[in-house]
Write a structure and sequence with these properties.
By secondary structure, the chain is of the alpha+beta class. The chain is built from 10 helices and 6 strands. The longest helix has 24 residues.
C-alpha cells in the first residue's frame, strides 16, 4: 500500500536523505519519496509486515517527526499558529543585534565614532564584553540550530544545522594562544599589554613604529604576483591610497619625522655599520638549529 506522511524537523537536503534512508531500511518498504519543500513523505510498503507506527518510529529515531497525513491533531508539516510570526520577530531582533555588533567591532575601521566607554585601550575590557554579550544573545535566540545540529552530529547524520552549530560554536569558544610552526609543533604565546608612558610637564616623548622592508620575505611573493619590486610593493602600503600616511591623517596622528629604511642616508649608514662589524669579525658564516619560520624575520 501507499501512505503519505507529514514530516517535521527537516531543513536541508541532507535531512530528507536521512529520513529516506531510515525508512528505506525497514523490512517491507518498497519505495520512499521525501519532499523537502512540502515536508511530506510517500511510502510504499507491505502493510502485512509494517505498520504506520513503525514508520513514524523510524523517522523519530533518525531525529525527525512524522505522522500519517490527515491524522488527528492536524498536519505535522504545518507549524503551530503564530510560529511564523514569532520566527520573523526573532530574525529581525537578531539582525538588529548583529548590526550593533558589527558597528562596535568594525565601525572604528571606517572612522565611525564609538561611545566613550568603549573607546581607547583603557576600555578594552568593556569593548570585548559588550561584543561577547551581543554574540551570546544572538546564539540564545537561535539556539534551536545548536540543539538540532549537535543532535544530528551525535547521531552520525550531520545536516546543515550541524554546520551552523559547529561553526558558530568554534567562532564563539575558540581562542588561539599558541604559535604553530611549519613542523606542526607549538609553543604558548605570552601577550602583555603595556601602558602608554606619560611624561610630566612639557617633556617630549619619542615613539617609533615600523612599516618598512623588514617584512621583505613575506611580501616578495605578493610583489612578484603584482609585477612590481618588493620596495614598490611596500611603497604602495605606505604612500599609496589608503596607505599608512592616509590612515594617520584619518586618525589625526602627526609625526615630527618619517624615516624609511630605504632612504639613501639610512642605507649608507647601515652599510657602514655592517662593514665595520665584518672587519671586526662579528659577522661570520654559521648554522642554527631550532624553531623558525619566515615571518619570524
Amino acid at each position: 500500500m501507499k501512505q503519505r506522511f507529514d514530516v517535521t524537523g527537516m531543513s536541508c537536503t541532507a535531512c530528507s536523505s536521512h529520513v529516506e534512508r531510515a525508512v528505506s531500511a525497514l523490512a517491507g518498504v518498497s519505495s520512499v519519496t521525501v519532499d523537502l519543500m512540502q515536508n511530506r513523505m510517500l511510502v510504499e510498503y507491505d502493510d502485512s509486515k509494517l505498520s504506520e507506527a513503525e514508520v513514524c518510529q523510524a523517522v523519530a529515531a533518525a531525529g525527525y517527526g512524522a505522522r500519517p497525513a490527515g491524522a488527528a491533531g492536524g498536519s505535522a508539516a504545518q507549524p503551530p499558529a503564530g510560529a511564523a510570526g514569532r520566527e520573523r520577530t526573532r530574525l529581525w531582533v537578531c539582525v538588529g543585534l548583529l548590526l550593533v555588533l558589527l558597528y562596535i567591532s568594525m565601525g572604528h575601521m571606517l572612522g565611525l565614532p564609538l561611545p566613550s566607554f568603549l573607546s581607547g585601550h583603557h576600555n578594552a575590557l568593556w569593548f570585548g564584553l559588550v561584543q561577547l554579550v551581543l554574540t551570546l544573545a544572538i546564539a540564545v535566540l537561535q539556539f534551536r540550530y545548536f540543539r538540532r545540529g549537535f543532535a544530528s552530529l551525535f547521531r552520525g547524520a550531520p545536516t546543515m544545522d550541524t554546520l551552523v552549530a559547529v561553526g558558530s560554536s568554534a567562532a564563539i569558544l575558540y581562542y588561539n594562544d599558541t604559535v604553530t610552526y611549519p613542523d606542526n609543533t607549538q609553543e604558548p604565546m605570552n601577550l602583555h599589554v603595556l601602558p602608554i608612558p606619560k611624561t610630566a610637564g612639557a617633556d617630549a616623548l619619542m615613539t617609533q613604529a615600523g612599516v618598512g622592508l623588514c617584512a621583505y620575505k613575506t611580501t616578495e611573493q605578493k610583489a612578484e604576483a603584482a609585477g612590481i619590486t618588493p620596495k614598490e610593493f611596500v611603497d604602495r602600503i605606505v604612500e599609496g591610497p589608503r596607505g599608512v600616511r592616509d590612515l594617520w591623517k584619518l586618525m589625526n596622528i602627526s609625526n615630527d619625522r618619517f624615516i624609511r629604511t630605504t632612504d639613501d642616508y639610512h642605507v649608507s649608514a647601515v652599510q657602514k655599520i655592517f662593514r665595520k662589524m665584518y672587519e671586526n669579525g662579528d659577522i661570520y658564516k654559521g648554522s642554527y638549529k631550532g624553531k623558525y619560520c619566515t615571518p619570524c624575520e
